[in-house]
Amino acid sequence: MSSFWSIWVSVITLGSILGCYLLLRWCLLNKTGVEEGDDMHHSFDGIIEINNPLPRWWTILFYIVLVWGLIYLAAYPGLGNFAGLLGWKSSNQNIQSLAESREAVELAKQNGELVQYDREIAQAEERFGPIFDKYASQPIEVLAKDEEALKIGQRLFLQNCSQCHGSDARGQRGFPNLTDNDWLYGGTPAKIKETLLNGRNAMMPAWLDAFGEQGIEEVVAYTLSLSGRQVDQQLKEAGEARFAACAACHGPDGKGNQAFGAPNLTDNIWLYGSTKETVTETLKYGRAGVMPSFKDTLGEKKVHLVSAYVYSLSQDN
Prior knowledge:
Low-confidence stretches: none
Distance between the termini: 55 Å
Strand content: 5-15%
CATH topology of the domain at 202-291: Cytochrome Bc1 Complex, Chain D, domain 2
CATH architecture of the domain at 202-291: Orthogonal Bundle
Number of helices: 13
């Protein structure tokens, strides 16, 4: 917050408290010329108005609220850029990376600052850490049959993975379906955990410059034929020869290679869509897919549980 806005907020806040105090003092003054307790010579519906002062309990309570407000503003952040005498803050601000967050946590400890978010994280770790430790010592195959472990894994999945893969884990355009048995890098427990820990960077190169428009059309025809689609026979035969450039990743039979994350082109499961137009777009301009690493954000123990949940999704198919 700039100095101007800091001063502005402070003046408005303190001015409001001062205004409330002056208003109270003004209301306590007898401005009527009538002694307190006497008749005000005004009645309505048979009710006579008496010049009574504000109730003492109400006045004292009002003073207490004003004093409490000043104590609160002195102890906690609230007056512009003033940090408060207790050194309390809700969280470490202006953090842009996990490394900066860790540094800020350590710095706050050294300076004796009370960071609410850090304290809540520490309390949660103390409470739930033993639970994650227990599950981390068990194989993923075992956890995939443990209902309580799967509930925890599902919640972690919904919080961290559903934005891309969907709440039902069935994926969407450009994001794999995790409930079938089609895996780009492998669907074993070890491979799933490896993917979650380290992330993936997939790259399908653009072939327009190498093949040209005609060559792209031919390769598209051959690629579509691999999954049983009806295509122009001449284009298919010409595309088969050009497909040798693609075989380095997808294999000579087009069944893919999990070592590279190259998809199987023969099973009619398409990450970006199976229309001729979509496949043409992929060949012309390439694709770049990124699966983020969760090693630092979740940690290995939580990743272990998410891996068990993801692994369980495809075991009934």
